[in-house]
Amino acid sequence: MARSPGLIVALDTADPSQAAAWAARLAPHAGLFKLGLEFFIANGPAGVRAFGQPVFLDLKLHDIPATVAGAVRASLPLAPRLLTVHATGGGAMVAAARRAAEAAGEDRPRILAVTVLTSLDDQALAATGIAARAADHVLRLAGLALAAGADGLVCSPHEVALLRSAFGEAPLLVVPGIRPRGAEVQDQARTMSPAEAGAAGADWIVVGRPITAAADPAAAAAAIRREMAAATG
Ligand code: C5P
Q1: Residues sharing a CB contact under 8 Å with residue 175, sequence separation 6 or more, in sequence order
Q2: How confident is the model at residue 196 (pLDDT cuts 50, 70, 90)?
Q3: Can you give the pLDDT at residue 233?
Q4: I need a surface site. Which of 3, 22, 41, 65 has the fewest CB within 10 A?
Q5: How far is CA 197 from CA 6, 95, 107, 187, in A?
Q6: Can you list the positions of beta strands (E) in the chain?
Q7: Pocket of ligand 1 (CB under 6 A)
Q8: Whose CA is nearest to atom 13 of ligand 1?
Q9: Do 211 and 217 contact (CB within 8 A), yes or no?
Q10: Are 203 and 171 contacting, i.e. CB atoms less than 8 angstroms apart?
Q11: 84 in helix, strand or coil?
Q12: Ligand 1 centroid to 209 CA: how many Å?
């Protein structure tokens, strides 16, 4: 179903003043900012607190259920809107993350499961002992994570339509690997435009370098928003 997804800007930096400068310019255009391991390991929870904007905390947690539950609990004072865990941690781990998040009540962080890293192709997956094709493994892990209580999934734009047809409209689908028409692809192998990802059924698109490395980041973000709005009417 065509929808107009929200825009998450990935602030991939260890430098808190760079993150703050981007956020100041982009706040009118971004629905949410993504801070990942690079920022978090450099600046810790205090850095996230000082950042002072609603965030998608992309920490890709993966450990035994009690440890992941503890990590989710420890994140609650930062009030992340979205938080990632690896589906490969298993159903009990995903369920523990969800239960821990529920302590925050209605505004709790939504738990997103990462299925197969897009850096792994069929061959790299086989080397880890997984004989399935990556696409089949994505479906299996997505089903497992959603059944265990994940609110949604991080997925490639090319998986959105498949995941919507398998799991319906309820799961939040958060989609990186987006490149506006004419933008540099960088290290993303299979990309889609913001409008295409919205048409496929993404709830949020995640865009980093096409915005943060642009000569005018605010204009780049505004152009992406316009492109999505034009596609969905
Ligand atoms: O700069 P770019 O738009 O490629 O940034 C995309 C963001 O989404 C980065 O923070 C990257 O780590 C993240 N990401 C991704 N592919 C995934 C999962 C996360 O590109 N499968």
Answers
A1: 5, 154, 155, 156, 157, 160, 192, 197, 202, 204, 205, 206
A2: very high
A3: 59
A4: 41
A5: 11, 28, 26, 18
A6: 6-10, 32-36, 55-61, 82-86, 110-114, 152-154, 172-175, 204-207
A7: 10, 12, 36, 117-118, 154, 176-177, 186, 188, 206-210
A8: 176
A9: yes
A10: no
A11: strand
A12: 9
Fold of 6-231: TIM Barrel (3.20.20)
pLDDT band at 6 (very low <50, low <70, confident <90, very high): very high
User: Does 28 score more than 70 pLDDT?
Assistant: yes
Q: Where are the domains of the chain?
A: 6-231
Name the token pair of 120. Answer: 């792994």
Pocket test for ligand 1, best of 159, 178, 206 (most atoms within 8 A of CB): 206
Structure tokens of 167?
A: 């799991």
